[in-house]
Amino acid sequence: MLPAEQLPPAPNTPPLSLLEGIRVLDLTTSIAGPYASLLLADLGAEVLKIERPGCGDDARAWGPPFLDGESLWFLSVNRNKHSVTLDYAQPAGLDALHALVKVADVIIINQVGRSQKKLGIDYARLKEINPRLVHVSITGFGLGGAKSDQPCYDLIAEGYSGVMDLTGESSERDPQKVGTPAADLLSGTDAAMAAMAALIDRNRTGKGHEIDVAMVESMTRFMTPRIIPYLGSGELPRRSGGTDSVIAIYQTFHTADHPMTLGLGNDAIWKRFCAAIGRSDMASDVRFADNAGRRACRPEIVQAIQSILSTMPRAHWLDLFTKARIPSGPINTLDQVVKDPTLTERGMFYATRRNGVAVPQVGLGIRFDGNSNTHRKDPPRLGEDTRQAFTSWLGWDDDAIQKLDDAGLL
């Protein structure tokens, strides 16, 4: 049995509708752009996912693994959307796209600026069609600058931003990518946030906006807590396996069986921790009285803590630290994450049924008045909503849609 078969169904509460009435055209592929439109769709916006006829979003081919003929990577970021196939590289297809733009509120694009102009989907062109349009570009390096035409993936942005240089066991070992497409998800979040801010301003002024999100810049901003200390101190951090935190004790430790995390972020927590492990002498040691002192003595303290934690299983320590309100936790594998009682109790994971197959989803994880349900529609099959979209958005009849189909544009 697949793990998805064990998930609960989607909540039966009404889905969130904060962006109800907002129409979004999503021309993007892969992860960053689709994640941006996923967030907007989850909050109630109506999203038309414009895809290339025959092949669609690049992520549809990313696999294995596949489920019911679909890439699981694709399924992870495309619920609540309507798939429309349209070849807008052809004049008649571009006319159809421009007709949709005229009644849209937001368009999201992940083509570089030069390609946008060539295809007739750049802000200057679309603003003529719809002055109230919020035009969102997600590119690797932004719409301006020497690298604006360069392609980019999450891996490239992570390398540029410095996060890979600081991720790994030590400076002698290879740098490592984050274990999820962090730059994609961060830039996608930035794009959704910026679109919502632009919509608020548009509703006040009546004017649309051009939004320029660069994956490298989103990922670089993610590094702010490491960049600012370097700029202000001249101390260049190096890979350390996460043991160089500004907080003296903020790292992983081994126990008698499994590793765990421990974060002693202030003096009160430090004192509670010392009491919990039976080392009141450490709490009263003047050398360890504040974080600066504990940092200066970090190797000594870490060695003492490690020798104590190694004597008992992780479950013992987590129970003890929970009772003492000490920040700590397990290092979960993904199979443990999806079974975590705290996350499952809050409805973080669910599955819907399509063709008798359980389609797994990860919820939004944000509650509005106690409600976090977002599910309206399964991730779409390629082009399954094409005719319905042209009818509902533009009022086109079957003959007008058939002409596009006959021309091979759908």
TrEMBL record:
GO molecular function: CoA-transferase activity
InterPro entries reported for this sequence: CoA-transferase_III_domain, CoA-Trfase_fam_III, CoA-Trfase_III_dom3_sf, CoA-Trfase_III_dom_1_sf
Keywords: Transferase
Keyword presence, Transferase: yes
Database matches in PANTHER family: SUCCINATE--HYDROXYMETHYLGLUTARATE COA-TRANSFERASE
Name of the protein in its database record: Crotonobetainyl-CoA:carnitine CoA-transferase CaiB-like acyl-CoA transferase
Organism ancestry: Bacteria, Pseudomonadati, Pseudomonadota, Betaproteobacteria, Burkholderiales
